Amino acid sequence: MGFDEMDVDTIWQDGSFVDWDDATVHVLTHGLHYGSGVFEGVRCYDTENGPALFRWEEHLDRFFESTKPYDMELPYSREELTQATLELVRREELESCYIRPVAFYGYGSLGVSPKDNPVNVAIAAWPWGTYLGEAALEEGVEVMISSWRKHASSQIPTNAKTTGLYVNSMLAGEEARRNGYTEAIVLNKEGNVAEGPGENIFLVRDGEIYTPGLAQSILDGITRNTVIELARERGYTVHDQATISRGELNTADELFFSGTAAEVTPIRKVDNVEIGNGSRGPVTEELQQAFFDLVERRNDDHDEWFTYV
Ligand code: PMP
């Protein structure tokens, strides 16, 4: 659904709430030219106890950490950003939504050095359903291995959620969709499995769970961390620093993506080769169920992960 069809009126921009249509920037904004911004994607779930931000504190941690390599000082505190977000969700009377905080070097000069530019910050929120399609959660998605490799963490910090990084995600995702797939899997420079364009990846084999570690040039996903915890609590052995070769994707019993947008999405085929029996596997289903039970607060587990609106 495009923004024009949505009924959200306000965006928080640089300290105040402005009309959606007025939340604009100058065309000579540094971040627009050089991708010098950092951002977050957070979900607010319509839980049994009312709307709640899921793992907001961890998203804020990552937001602040993402600024570090870029010497970017956010002009707002954690508390200010939290209050702004809660107020935005309340004002718009959103029940479940996606929240997008973004900070970027703004308008001032266009040398590559950002030092003369202000740091601008905005937070928007809007309703956003299943990222990879309604059917994806149950049936799984068909993905292709992208011919684009993920940038190595020696080239650009892949653990920072930087706006400029996402041209790589766009290339990989669009290549996949152009070829009739829903999403891509991106290999790292060494040719091992890194992640999806906007998702982490998990592999199940012989009842154990594997996911690439940070050394594989991945983003340290908060959903990844959630899935690891849920799996361990259910007695699974989780190898969270795995090196997964391309061929191991084909011989996996199950594969699935995790991410704020993608949540827990099974992968049923890779490059047209069926994974397992070609449908959502039992471990994926169990963890997916555990995930949705958690985020919709159908149980009391991990209440510390929720910030109620
Ligand atoms: N990898 C990449 C490249 C991403 O953009 C995302 C989405 N933020 C993820 C993994 C998943 O991270 P999270 O679970 O924190 O949303």
From TrEMBL:
The cross-references to Gene3D superfamilies, in alphabetical order and at most eight, read:
3.30.470.10, D-amino Acid Aminotransferase, subunit A, domain 2
The record's family statement is: Belongs to the class-IV pyridoxal-phosphate-dependent aminotransferase family.
What are this entry's molecular-function GO terms? L-isoleucine-2-oxoglutarate transaminase activity; L-leucine-2-oxoglutarate transaminase activity; L-valine-2-oxoglutarate transaminase activity
Q: What does this gene product do? A: Acts on leucine, isoleucine and valine.
A biological process (GO) annotation for this entry?
Answer: isoleucine biosynthetic process
- At the top level of its lineage, which domain of life is listed? Archaea
- Which reaction equations make up its catalytic activity? L-leucine + 2-oxoglutarate = 4-methyl-2-oxopentanoate + L-glutamate; L-valine + 2-oxoglutarate = 3-methyl-2-oxobutanoate + L-glutamate; L-isoleucine + 2-oxoglutarate = (S)-3-methyl-2-oxopentanoate + L-glutamate
State the pathway, as annotated in the record: Amino-acid biosynthesis; L-valine biosynthesis; L-valine from pyruvate: step 4/4; Amino-acid biosynthesis; L-isoleucine biosynthesis; L-isoleucine from 2-oxobutanoate: step 4/4; Amino-acid biosynthesis; L-leucine biosynthesis; L-leucine from 3-methyl-2-oxobutanoate: step 4/4
> What Enzyme Commission number(s) appear in the record?
2.6.1.42
What gene codes for this chain? ilvE
Check the record and name the CDD domains matching this protein.
Answer: BCAT_beta_family
Has keyword Kinase? Answer: no
State the UniProt keywords alphabetically: Amino-acid biosynthesis, Aminotransferase, Branched-chain amino acid biosynthesis, Pyridoxal phosphate, Transferase
Species this protein is from: Halobellus clavatus
What name appears for this protein in its UniProt entry? Answer: Branched-chain-amino-acid aminotransferase
Question: Pfam families, per this entry?
Answer: Aminotran_4
Query: What does the record give as cofactor?
Result: pyridoxal 5'-phosphate
Q: Does the keyword Transferase apply?
A: yes
